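Researcher: Checking consistency across runs. Here is Methanolan biosynthesis EpsI domain-containing protein again:
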Amino acid sequence: MQKNRAIWILGLLVLVLLGPLLQDHLRILWGRQHYQWFPLLLLVVVSLSIRLWSKAEPAEDGPSSLALGLGLLACMFLTAVAYLYYTGWVATVAAIGVLGLLAANLSGIRRMPGLFAVWALLFLLVRLPNQIEKRLLNLFESLSSKIASVVIDQSGTYHVVQGHLLVIDGYEIELDKICNGFFSVVSMVAVVCLYALWRKRPCFHVALLIGSAFAVATVVNVLRIATVGIVYGTAGWDLMDSGWVYVMLVASFAFGLLALMSCDALYSFFLQPVATKEKKKDGRGLVKVWNAIVGFRISKVLESLRKPHTSGASAARPVLTSVLALSLLCLTAFEASVLYYRWGFGNYQTYFMHDKENLAIIDPADVQFARPGWKLLDVQTEEREMSSLWGTYSFVWRLEYHDTMVIMALDYPFNKWHDVKVCYSQLGWKTEAEGLLMPESYKNWGASETEMSLPTGDYGFILCSHCNHKGKPVQPKPTSHQFDMVMYYLHPKQWTAPYGISVDKNQNTFYQTQVMVTAAFPLDEPTKQEIREMYGAFREQARALIEKKSGE
C-alpha cells in the first residue's frame, strides 16, 4: 500500500472532484422509481468488498504501477469531459473507473478473488441515455400491456388501453407505475447480475441470463397488469393504491427470481465444457472454441496481467506521479471555472437567455398565409409559466386547408433544441415515425417531421424547426439515435459555460416554429407536401421577423 500511495491520494482526490456531478446523477436515479434500488446495490458492493478483504491473504503479485497511473490519467480525462458537457453519466463512468483502479491497488496488498465481479456491479448505476431508456421501457410496457389486455379480455372485464393508461369503467390506472416502478426490466437485470455474482457464472452465461431477465420481466409485468385490471374490474379495488401493492411487489420479485433460477439451471446443463480425447483430433478445434466461449472470464485475463512484486511492478515512477499531479491541478482549475458559472448565476438554465424585455417579440399580424386553398381562422397569444415544457410564450395561428384543421405556432424562449414530440407524448400521443426533412425549398434549414397517433386512432402530423435570437437557423436534433446523435451531443455547441457558445445569449435563446395537424385518418402525401410547403413559408417569415426585431 505504501508503494502506491500516490495512486491512493490522487484517486481519492479525483473522486472528490467528481462529487458534484455524482450527486446530480444519483439524484436523477432516485427520481426514477425503477432505479430506487441503487442504495441497496451500493450497500451490497461495500459489504462484499469488506468481506473479501477480511478473508484475503497477502498478495505476492499485483498490477503494474504504470497501468494504474495510465488508468488514472484516463479517468481524469473522462472527468474533464464530464464537466465540459456537465453530464453525470460520464462522471459516473469516471468514478467507477477510479474505484476499479483503487480496488486493483488493494488486490496488490491482499489477493481478493471475486473483487472484479463485485466492482463490475457498479456499472448498473450507469443508466442508458434518456431516449434509449425511454424507448426500451416503452417497448416492454407496450408489449406487456398488449398481452395483458388479451388476458383481461378472457376474464370478461371490459377495458381500454390508452397510451400509458389502463381504463376500466372510466377509471384510469397508470401502466407506467405497474411496469416501470420499483419492479421493472431494469430491476430484474440488477437481480440477475447479483444472482450471477453469487453463483460465479462465466461471462457468456451471464449474458444469457441478462437476456432472460428481459423476457422474465415482461412475463411478470403481464401478470401484474392482468391482476390489477381483473381485480379492479371485478371488485372495484385498485391494488396500486393500497397496501397490496407491496405484497404484489414481493411476489413479483419472488416469481422473477424463480424463473431466472430455472433459466440458470437450463443454461448450466447446456453450457458444459466438452471433454476431448488426445488421440482423436477431428473436431478438436471446434471443441476448443466452444470451451473458450462457455468458460471465458474477464478475471482470468486480468490475472494474467499481474506481475510479481519482486519484478518491480510496484516501483515508484516519479515522472508519472508528477504528470498525474499536474493533470489533477489543471482539472481542479477547469472544474472550478465550470462550477463558478453553474453555482454563481442563479437559475443557470435561464440566466444565459434573453429575458422578456429583450426578446424579439414579433407582431403575429405580419405573418401571412398566401398559398391557395388556405384560410386563416384566428390568432391567439398564450403565456405560461417559465418552466413550461411548451415554452413561456406562444403565438398560435389556426388555419384550414381543404377541411383539414392546421395549427401553426411560434413558441419561445428555449435554451436548447426543444423536442416538441415529448410535449405531445405527455398528452398520450405515441410516435409512429420520425425523421429529418431538408428539401431544397427549405434553404438548407432542416426540420424534424413526426407522425404520431392516439389510442383512439387519431392521427397527428408535426413539423418543427428552431432559430436563435438573431434569426440564424438552428439545425434539428438527429432522430436516428445512432452515430449522428452521438456527434450531436459531442458538438462544441453542447459545451457548458463558460466554454463554447454557452454564455452567448443570442445563440442560447431559441425560437421554435411548429405545425400540428390532427385528423381522424392519416394524411395523404399531396396534403402532407402542401403542409410542408406552407410551413416552410411560415417559418421563414417568422425567422425574418425575429432577425429584424433583434437588430432594432
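Researcher: Does this match what you'd expect to see?
Model: One thing to look at in this run: The longest helix spans residues 203-235.
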